[in-house]
Task: structure prediction
Amino acid sequence: MTRRKFSVCSPRRPLLIVVAAPSGAGKSTLCRRLLADEPRMVYSVSCTTRPPRGNEQDGRDYHFLSPAEFRRRLRRGCFLEHAMVHGHHYGTLRAPVLRALRQGRDVLMDIDVQGAAQVRRAVRHGRNALLRAALVDIFIAPPSMRELRRRLECRHEDAPEEIRRRLRNARIEMSRRREFRHVIVNDDLETAYRELRAILDAARGQPG
Result:
């Protein structure tokens, strides 16, 4: 009598996808497209002490907190990462990230290089094996600083001084891109998106 062998599929590995980039590199466009194509992916909504802008809504774009409430949560160790940016606090709450990962859902974090460095430290030095197994960090780079300047100017959203400030910050951020395991140069949006999907498929152990 021949016994039939049955294979047991292991649960799908959830990913903690940390994406950082200089302003104007195309990070937000790539992240929006990824979320549209991945209905089970969770977008990590950051906390901030800055006031809402335009049509921003609490809980959708950011969790808007008072400085006192932000400091209270910081003292309690509620944040996976946090940073002071242009005079305002920003941070990612640890609990919602862990809850989504435990549900088997991917979590997308759209943060700056400071926050990404803190997430890596928390994962490397922490005891949470789920976070350690899930982390995929990706830096989105422009093809050149000249092209980045052109993109910022073509948006017609910022005054010349603000563009100069963003470019100064971009040079600092670009100098730290080697801290990331993956770097995508966004010269062409379609190509960059295919590279992003290929990185995630490889992390999940799926064929590209």
The CA atoms of residues 19 and 138 lie 5 Å apart. The two ends are 40 Å apart (CA to CA). The first strand starts at residue 16 and ends at 20. Confidence is low (pLDDT under 50) at residues 1-10.
